[in-house]
Structures are given as structure tokens and as C-alpha cells.
Automatic annotation (TrEMBL):
<keyword id="KW-0443">Lipid metabolism</keyword>
<dbReference type="GO" id="GO:0047952">
    <property type="term" value="F:glycerol-3-phosphate dehydrogenase [NAD(P)+] activity"/>
</dbReference>
<feature type="binding site">
    <location>
        <position position="122"/>
    </location>
    <ligand>
        <name>sn-glycerol 3-phosphate</name>
    </ligand>
</feature>
<feature type="binding site">
    <location>
        <position position="124"/>
    </location>
    <ligand>
        <name>NAD(+)</name>
    </ligand>
</feature>
<dbReference type="GO" id="GO:0006650">
    <property type="term" value="P:glycerophospholipid metabolic process"/>
</dbReference>
<comment type="similarity">
    <text>Belongs to the NAD-dependent glycerol-3-phosphate dehydrogenase family.</text>
</comment>
<keyword id="KW-0521">NADP</keyword>
<feature type="binding site">
    <location>
        <position position="239"/>
    </location>
    <ligand>
        <name>sn-glycerol 3-phosphate</name>
    </ligand>
</feature>
<feature type="binding site">
    <location>
        <position position="89"/>
    </location>
    <ligand>
        <name>NADPH</name>
    </ligand>
</feature>
<keyword id="KW-1208">Phospholipid metabolism</keyword>
<protein>
    <recommendedName>
        <fullName>Glycerol-3-phosphate dehydrogenase [NAD(P)+]</fullName>
        <ecNumber>1.1.1.94</ecNumber>
    </recommendedName>
</protein>
<feature type="binding site">
    <location>
        <position position="239"/>
    </location>
    <ligand>
        <name>NAD(+)</name>
    </ligand>
</feature>
<feature type="domain" description="Glycerol-3-phosphate dehydrogenase NAD-dependent C-terminal">
    <location>
        <begin position="164"/>
        <end position="305"/>
    </location>
</feature>
<feature type="binding site">
    <location>
        <position position="228"/>
    </location>
    <ligand>
        <name>sn-glycerol 3-phosphate</name>
    </ligand>
</feature>
<keyword id="KW-0594">Phospholipid biosynthesis</keyword>
<feature type="binding site">
    <location>
        <position position="89"/>
    </location>
    <ligand>
        <name>substrate</name>
    </ligand>
</feature>
<dbReference type="GO" id="GO:0005829">
    <property type="term" value="C:cytosol"/>
</dbReference>
Length: 329
């Protein structure tokens, strides 16, 4: 919608014939965006080759679990000059790799410095209504990030650039864990204090792992960090929040995922972050508590008790200030 508003011809690729027909005939995508009429500049196809032919930019926006498969399928068709952008928030859980690494591995002839990640507080339901939205684009090569900025920016969609690909990808992925936790505390009937605590201490552990993985800690104070954390932890649109809420109310994970019918990235990301925290030797108590609830049968109430009973500690970490001063793109 944003690109069509900016005068571009947009081709959507889907593997579902019925969805493609609906988009082309009725200009709606009722499974995902009820009550929205899409621009006539948007059309759809089941042919990936047709979708990317002569494309100025190719945007990968499916799930993290399907990124490798889709990037691999794209390989023979990607026009070499096209700008490659992804908007997926998660890790490849089998390898713990970030999305840009997965894409780079599947598209070895594409200059990986030009792969752009687009992230930030941006629920699709609000973007299609043209509600003011701000996001961030990051690439190792700043011209690529600026080219993505040029494509998307308009009066209702404001785009910032950032050279920190690692931080932007990690912020977008890890906030989903905290959103699950925020939903869970709401489902348990706790109030604003609990949610504020989770968001604040959640941001601390996002920044801790992110910094250990090479991100600029200041990125987590930006749109891909605290910005997306606020949107996702407080929004009725968030699938992660809703999934957490149902679990807090006593539902089992399998039942919740079945009901959602859409991706809840935070579940796989909790698995990935739990392992990454061990690998990088950083403390992620909220992630660990959620891991135990999701995968080890701990009750939400027990997890909260564990978190509140942890050994007392101080708030601000020196390491973050030092890392920020030293960080180079
Ligand atoms: N929704 C939002 O507001 C935002 C989402 N994101 C991120 O974007 C990503 C996608 O989210 P979202 O669109 O909401 O998720 P949904 O679950 O709503 O949709 C996922 C889409 O990916 C497609 N897909 C999954 N696997 C494959 C595959 N192997 N081949 C082809 N298509 C596939 C699905 O197609 P099919 O129906 O055929 O299964 C479906 O169209 C996530 O990482 C999310 O975190 C980021 C910002 C905002
Ligand atoms: O990342 C998002 C908004 O920025 C979407 O969050 P959910 O996947 O929780 O709906």
C-alpha cells in the first residue's frame, strides 16, 4: 500500500491461487486485512519469476521459518540490480542465524552489503489505513538503506536509516518474546506496573544479547528497539501479545497457535534466544522464564514467582555505555 501510494506498480507473490484471484479481481485480501480495499496498482501472481521480473526492488516479508526456502527459490530470478529488502522479524531457529545471513547464503551472487532490513513499530492493520507510522531501514551499504528510504517514505510513512543491521534485526526479533510476556501478564490479570516492568527489563536483556552479538546498544533505544517493543506489547493487533494473553489465561501453546492461524514469531524466537543467551553467556531471565512456560511445562504463575524472587541486582550496566562509545558500523 505504501509503495502503491508512492506511485509504484506492486506485484505480490503468493503460493495460493485463490488469494491471487481475490487480490486481482476484488482488490481485497480478506484473510489478512478485512475491510481493506487495496490499490489497483497492486496485483498478485503465483509465479515468483513473474513477480520479480524487471523489479526495481524485491521485498521478502514472509515468516522467518520460510526465509531460506523463499530466498533459495528467488535465486534464479532476482534481477542483479534490484534492491533486496526484508521485513521478517525472527531467527532461523535451526541455525540461530539472522535473516540477512540466511538470505546472503541463499543468494551468493548478490552483494550482501546491499541487503536491507526494514523494521520498527508497524502493524499492517494501521499502515493500510495510512495512520502515521515510523520505521527504520538498515544496510551495511548506506546507499542501499537510503534507496529503501526513498522508495517507502511519504507523508504517513516516515523512514529513518541506521547502519546497524545486527541491532535492527535483533531488536525486531527479540521484542516478540517480551510481547508474549506482556500478553501473559495481562492474561494473568496483572496491571500496568507488571507490563512496564517487563518492557523495561525486557529491553535491558534485548540490549544485553544484542550488544554481545555486535549491535550498537543505542539502536535498542530507537524504532527497532523500544519503538517496536511499545507497539507490540500494548497493541490489540499484536499476535504475540494475544498468544501470550491466552497462555496467561491457561490455554496450551498448541491450542493457541492453532487458534491464531497466523505466525507468532516470538515462540520460535524464544527458543533461539534461550540458546543464544547461553552461547554468548548473557543473562536473559525473562526469556528463560518464558522458555520454561512454553516448552517445559512451568505455569505462568511459577514463572512470575521465579522472576520476582531473583537475586537482587543493580539497574544500569556499565558494559552498555562502554560498548556504545566503541561501536563502529
Ligand atoms: N503483520 C505485521 O504487522 C508485521 C509483521 N512483521 C513480520 O513479517 C513476517 C510475516 O508476518 P505476517 O505477514 O504478519 O504473517 P502471517 O502469518 O500473517 O502471514 C505469513 C505469510 O507468509 C507466507 N508463507 C509462509 N511460509 C511460506 C512459504 N514457505 N512459501 C510461501 N509463502 C509462505 C504465508 O502464506 P500461506 O498463507 O500460503 O501460508 C502468509 O502469506 C513476520 O516475521 C512478522 O514478524 C513485521 C512487521 C509488521
Ligand atoms: O512486528 C509487528 C509490529 O511492528 C507485528 O507484531 P505481531 O507479530 O506481534 O503481530
Amino acid at each position: 500500500t505504501v509503495l502503491a501510494d508512492n506511485g509504484m506498480e506492486v506485484c505480490l507473490w503468493s503460493r495460493r491461487e485463490e488469494q491471487v484471484t481475490e487480490i486481482n479481481r476484488r482488490h481485497t485480501n480478506s484473510r489478512f486485512l478485512k475491510d481493506t480495499v487495496l490499490s489497483e496498482a497492486i496485483y498478485a501472481t503465483t509465479s515468483l519469476e513473474e513477480a520479480v521480473r524487471d523489479a526495481e526492488a524485491v521485498i521478502l516479508a514472509a515468516t522467518s521459518a520460510s526465509m531460506r526456502e523463499i530466498a533459495g527459490k528467488l535465486q534464479p530470478y532476482l534481477p542483479p540490480e534490484a534492491l533486496l529488502i526484508h521485513a521478517t522479524k525472527g531467527f532461523e531457529v535451526e541455525t540461530m542465524k539472522r535473516m540477512t545471513s540466511v538470505i546472503a547464503e541463499e543468494l551468493p551472487s548478490y552483494d550482501s552489503r546491499r541487503i536491507v532490513v526494514l523494521s520498527g513499530p508497524s502493524h499492517a492493520e494501521e499502515v493500510v489505513l495510512r495512520c502515521p507510522t515510523t520505521i527504520v531501514v538498515a544496510a551495511e551499504e548506506m546507499e542501499a538503506a537510503e534507496a529503501a528510504q526513498d522508495l517507502f517514505i511519504n507523508s504517513h510513512f516516515r523512514v529513518y536509516t541506521n547502519p546497524d543491521v545486527t541491532g535492527v534485526e535483533i531488536g525486531g526479533a527479540l521484542k516478540n518474546i517480551i510481547a508474549l510476556g506482556a500478553g501473559l501478564t495481562d492474561g494473568l490479570g496483572f496491571g500496568d506496573n507488571a507490563k512496564a516492568a517487563l518492557m523495561t527489563r525486557g529491553l535491558a536483556e534485548i540490549a544485553r544479547l544484542g550488544t554481545a552479538m555486535g549491535a550498537n546498544p543505542l539502536t535498542f533505544a530507537g524504532l527497532a528497539g523500544v519503538g517496536d517493543l511499545i507497539a507490540t506489547c500494548t497493541s490489540k493487533h499484536s499476535r504475540n501479545w494475544r498468544a501470550g494473553y491466552m497462555i496467561g489465561q491457561g490455554a496450551a501453546l498448541e491450542e493457541v497457535l492453532e487458534k491464531m492461524g497466523m505466525v507468532v514469531e516470538g515462540v520460535k524466537t524464544t527458543q533461539a534466544a534461550h540458546i543464544l543467551a547461553q552461547r554468548y553467556e548473557v543473562a536473559m531471565p525473562i526469556t528463560d522464564a518464558l522458555f520454561r512456560v512454553l516448552f517445559e511445562g512451568k505455569t505462568p504463575e511459577e514463572a512470575v514467582e521465579d522472576l520476582m524472587g531473583r537475586v537482587r541486582t543493580h539497574e544500569i550496566e556499565d558494559i552498555a555505555q562502554e560498548a556504545s562509545a566503541k561501536w563502529v558500523p
